[in-house]
Amino acid sequence: MIKLYEDGIYLLNGKNIVTEYNMSKEEAKKGTIAYSILKSHNTNSSMNNLKIKFDAMASHDITFVGIIQTAKASGMKKFPLPYVLTNCHNSLCAVGGTINEDDHMFGLSAAKKYGGIYVPPHIAVIHQFMREKFAGCGKMILGSDSHTRYGALGTIAIGEGGGELVKQLLEQTYDITYPEVIAIYLDGKPKPWVGPQDIALAIIGAVFKKGYVKNKIVEFVGPGVSSMTTDFRNGVDVMTTETACLSSIWRTDEDTREFLKTHKRENEYKELNPQDVAYYDGCVYVDLDTVKPMIALPFHPSNVYEIDELKKNPYEILKAVEEEAFNITGKRILSLTDKIIDEKIMVQQGVIAGCAGGNYTNLVEARNYLKDKSCGNGEFSLSIYPSSQPVFTELLKQGVITDLTNTGAIIRTAFCGPCFGAGDTPVNNGLSIRHTTRNFPNREGSKPGVNQMSAVALMDARSIAATALNGGILTSAEEVYKEHQVPEYKFDETSYENRVFYGFEKGDFESELKYGPNIKDWPEMRNLADNILLKVCSKIMDPVTTTDELIPSGETSSYRSNPLGLAEFTLSRRDPEYVGRAKEVDKLEKDRATGNISTEIKVVIEKINKIFGQEKINLDDIQIGSTIYAIKPGDGSAREQAASCQRVLGGLANISKEYATKRYRSNLINWGMIPFIMEEEANFEINDYIYVPQIKDSLNGDMKSIKAYVISDEIKEINLSISYLTDVEKEIIKAGCLINYNKK
């Protein structure tokens, strides 16, 4: 059972939930774990508007090049805090010739020059390395990956776009209003056949669509926390990203201490608990005893069912997914009902991988189900990716790897590929079950634009192993469970000692960065003019638009270090005509800047002048740029390229009803793009112009009502708004981007 409280609650002595208490909410809010950690990292005198300095940062190899290039262009001389550069996304160096390894060598040269920590390919996925080596009780860590979550180790960790990491490298601050804090109250104990993914999916299914924890901190409390090992908690924690929360934090206990002690960092432990009275802005009550093996069907981790429920009514449920695929692609190229054979659902692939699935406990549990059995020699295949070399080493010592390979499972290295479409892409029209983080459309690597599409469902490693045991027949772990044990884990970091470069505070500042031919500087961007003329280059009416649609993952990762090269893929799987339209608008602006005004723009200007009468537009005070309209853009990855690709093509703004995540909105701001909100219906179409006069004055005002004008066959007035911006964010937009702001 999962219950959402309609209003806030008081938690007394860490155990008792009450809705009223004789202490003010404002005072009792100080009793949360989150408050104490945020307060200790806040450099501002006010707790209402936080200015955070982090203890450490982490990036991987499709984000760190752009971040370092931006920081370098902004005047960075060294890494002022521990900055970990992992190479777990473009690890394979299989696409794009030499350019992936060029990025890796750039990263190593940057770690040597500026004083960073460099983790070579195949050694560890980003979040496992941070759990093992950096996360600790009471810390804060910032990462350029949306699944930056180390709450189970007592760390508030936040995934953001690269611009926010650049600010930390420049010794600036992470500025946010104090977030609401939601209690995740865990009661009871998981059944032995239930794993962390089951618990995570149950919570995601309960809260995501309601927006219950969006942009808030979730705080795991209650007696049920201690019913799980810390390794198990890590698997739940990393999936909190899919609830759309800002971050997570857990109460800590002796098992947390043991985890840190095992990893030779017992000094990083301290007990974290809410105070005797703590007020939370909401509460999710989870009875762990009632959680059953779960499955998240395409195309979102919130599309959750109990496996038993799916098996009882497979045709109707899978038919609904087929219809969703049609709504996304406009084509009937995915069928799942044909996987129902003799009332059983047949699966073509299983994957257990990455920061969610590749943990030691999950892989041992998978072995426990499969030992001395076979995955079969049919269509079904099973791939397993341990999350780090130390985990892999211990699995070797325990004989787990041998047991798994003998079943027919394939063991791979520490790699995030299956999570973003660069590893184990399934067969066309196939069904893949995965203990990974996401199952967005095309994130597994298929290409609907050329009639290639497959489906990913998220499941726990235990039920994936149970399915493998049955040769690909979808099976809940509960159906085949037999009592077994998980041997104690011993951390051997010899592989880290021999391969990881530890250079913090040891920078060789005179050394040179190593550039490959695909590593390009950011193009120059103009500062904001007084008036802007936006041309609508895409209009997306889907309920949610993910960052994978804004800039696809997979093979495009090879171009992450080449801003203009990557921009060619913007919206390519959602609106293939967008790039051409945006380039045409960019040319109109470049021509205007040189006095070459096109006939099209002259006609638009004449219409605008009719609105304002004698107040003729000075063409030196106007800026032409592209915009996209989307109902709710930005769900998913933290990648800043979802915004920067629009910007380098001449984008000036997004218009939406709301933004799916804080991090996407921040990416827009850091790249000088205005995050407009429009509550009314979007009564304009692609190729219409929208004129926004005196935009700088609007930014200096309350931004609640900004008059704009749709210039098409007729002229229509519309109302735009902008949610709260800090003074610095306003100046970044006016400057044209974060790089320009810092140069000033």
List the helices and strands and how they pair.
Elements (H helix, E strand, L loop, with lengths): L1 E3 L4 E4 L3 E3 L6 H4 L4 H9 L7 E4 L3 E4 L4 H10 L9 E4 L12 H16 L2 E3 L6 H8 L6 E4 L12 E4 L2 H8 L4 E4 L3 E7 L8 H12 L9 E5 L8 H8 L9 E4 L3 H9 L14 E4 L1 E6 L6 E3 L7 E3 H6 L1 H16 L10 E2 L2 E2 L3 E4 L1 H4 L2 H11 L10 E4 L4 H9 L2 H8 L2 E2 L5 H4 L10 E5 L19 E4 L2 H9 L7 H4 L13 H6 L1 E2 L28 E10 L4 E2 H4 L12 H5 L10 H16 L5 H14 L9 E9 L2 E3 L5 H8 L2 E6 L5 H9 L3 E4 L11 E4 L2 H6 L5 E6 L3 E6 L6 H9 L2 H6 L1
Parallel strand pairs: 5-6, 5-8, 6-7, 8-9, 11-12, 11-15, 12-13, 20-21, 20-23, 21-22, 23-24, 26-28, 27-29, 28-30, 30-31
Antiparallel strand pairs: 1-15, 2-3, 2-14, 4-10, 7-25, 16-17, 18-19, 26-32, 32-33, 33-34
Helix pairs in contact: 3-6, 7-8, 13-15, 13-17
Description:
The structure is a single chain. This protein has 28 helices and 34 strands. Helix 7 packs parallel to helix 8, helix 13 crosses helix 15 and helix 13 runs parallel beside helix 17. It has 4 domains: 1-31 and 179-291, 3-Layer(aba) Sandwich (Aconitase, Domain 2), CATH 3.40.1060.10; 53-176, Aconitase, domain 3 (2-Layer Sandwich); 294-491, Aconitase, domain 3, CATH 3.30.499.10; 531-743, Alpha-Beta Barrel (Aconitase, domain 4). The strands form 9 sheets. Strands 31-30-28-26-32-33-34 form a 7-stranded mixed beta sheet. Helices cover 32% and strands 19% of the residues. The radius of gyration is 26 Å and the shape is globular.
